[in-house]
Amino acid sequence: MANDVPVINTERRLLMGNEAIALGALRVGALVCTGYPGTPSTEILETIAREKPDGVYYEWSVNEKAAMEVASGAAISGARALVTMKQVGLNVASDPLMSLNYVGVKAGMVVVVADDPGPISSQTEQDTRHFGRFAKICVFDPSTPEEAYTMAAAAFDLSERIHRPVILRPTTLVCHSYALVEILPDLPRATPEGFTKDGGKWAIFPRLSYVNKIETEKTLVALSGDMPEAVGNALIRGRRGQGADAGRRRYGIASCGVSWQYVKEAIARIERRESTASAGLPEYDLLKIGTYPLPESMCADFMNGVDEALVIEELDPFVEDELARVAGRRRMDVVIRGKRTGDIPVAGECSTAIAEAAIAKFLGLPAVPRVSAVPSAENMPPLPARPPVLCAGCPHRGAFFAVKEAMKGRAATYSGDIGCYTLGNVAPLDMVDTCLCMGAGVTQAQGIARAEAFGGDGATHFAFIGDSTFLHTGVPGLMNAAWNGADVIVCILDNATTAMTGGQPHPGMGERLDGSKAERIDIYGMAAAAGAHSVQRADPFDTASCKEIVAKAADETGVRVIIFEAPCINLVPKGDALSVSDGCTGCSQCVKKLGCPALFMREGRAKVDEALCTGCGLCAGVCPFGALMENGRKVEG
Fold this sequence. Notes:
Layout: E1 12-16, H1 17-27, E2 32-35, H2 43-51, E3 57-60, H3 64-75, E4 81-86, H4 89-103, E5 109-114, H5 128-135, E6 139-140, H6 145-162, E7 166-168, H7 172-176, E8 178-182, H8 206-225, E9 234-239, E10 250-256, H9 259-274, E11 283-289, E12 291-292, H10 296-304, E13 308-312, H11 318-329, E14 335-337, H12 352-362, H13 395-406, E15 412-415, H14 440-452, E16 460-466, H15 467-483, E17 488-494, H16 523-529, E18 534-538, H17 543-554, E19 559-565, E20 579-580, H18 589-594, E21 599-602, E22 605-608, E23 628-630, E24 633-634
């Protein structure tokens, strides 16, 4: 059996795509690495922190805009810089990015923006390739973790050659897939020469922007003429079958990013299946795109040899539209198919099954047979729905419940935000009426209150925001409320971490990415300094006290802030699980009011899942019969 164990080359490492990007950047001398946590990009900076590379500075910045600006300052001073974020984070960082491409950089600067088809953990299915085109910035699109590793180096090299930032755009599956990656030798690291005053070169003024836009356009035209294959572009000619159409009509299949892997798998399946059929396969060519702007000459060569082209890609029909543009400008007689023609789904992740069905139909082959992964799947009951829910013991549940109880019988609106507490929208809490983007809960509540001034029901307007999100983009909203005399209650849910993305530090924790101690930003003091009329602290597990604080705030006017302070359940030791005494009457109030996953009903009585229960005791304050017990003793709610 020992001879059957595969021997892994010691120069290869099993890496997640995000780890590969981090190591690829370090290999070519990235010296300043910044970012803001956001799935699916988070592990890139975490990998750099874990590697603890000598002479490399890395930080979680307060938001993506700050991260972009810190990295740009390093890059114009001659230090290679890496900045990471997810696709919606680029919205926050877009202001400096748009200007930076006009100003330029001295050393290479790579902006890693992880897109999220699905979306799996995002508000939008935003496609960063459009941002690249909009900002006139080159975009690299890796299809595998291995390619992400080599593209990181290629992106730095190109950035340094053209003196402009370059975007590296992995998608969720590339970020989180694992592969054996060949680790190449580290390249010599250049010593930054520091910032050099250069007659206003680094200051963006209208005249400089005008001149630099012209230069940027020239660069893009030159790059689109011949993007090298080394960064992921390839034209594969003459995949031939033996059918009657072979040699007479040729089809083309174009793809990019992780969809290229689906296409390769789908074609392998089709070729195996059709090799036993009498008709065989028609002739077809393949085009792989890995850079934007597209390599126009390669695209033209591809379309010059085909009658129809099918484009398989995730998110927007970017390559599809670009091929149509090239074909139209060059007056090429080719039919472009894809999302615009309904051949590919317009939303959601791609898959091998989607690619296989689309390719078979495109090539005029029999429909792909449906094969169940489980022989008796058609006889199995559907899987139960498992909606996302706040963890058992989560302090946010206590905050939401206290506000809901305090406002019972009174009109109120609840504006939410981005974070774990977004899950407060799920029944039975139902405490998130709006959710737009980071920091927007504070300002949307103001807008709702202003509209009601024209004739409403006298509701009290709440905004819920987490501690990390408050420091990300909530502070300006609170200042706006105070400055403009708004009448809102801002509830800051301070669980002492950036919980949704895995527990990263933020400025309110007194800790940095590398684990070192830092000056702790006092959220209470920040709220007071932003102009709040009153700032109160509350323990979300003390329901009675919280209800009193909320009720008092609801009777006041102006900008009131309540900071619900209790650590994320993942930061504290698990307490003893509660049990249910014989005093339980089966009223189910604990289950119906809290929605805690550790509580459920069975045989007419409440039960506690001991594996989930953290012993927070919140349910004890709900039970009207005192039936919740800890170590045989009644728990006082």
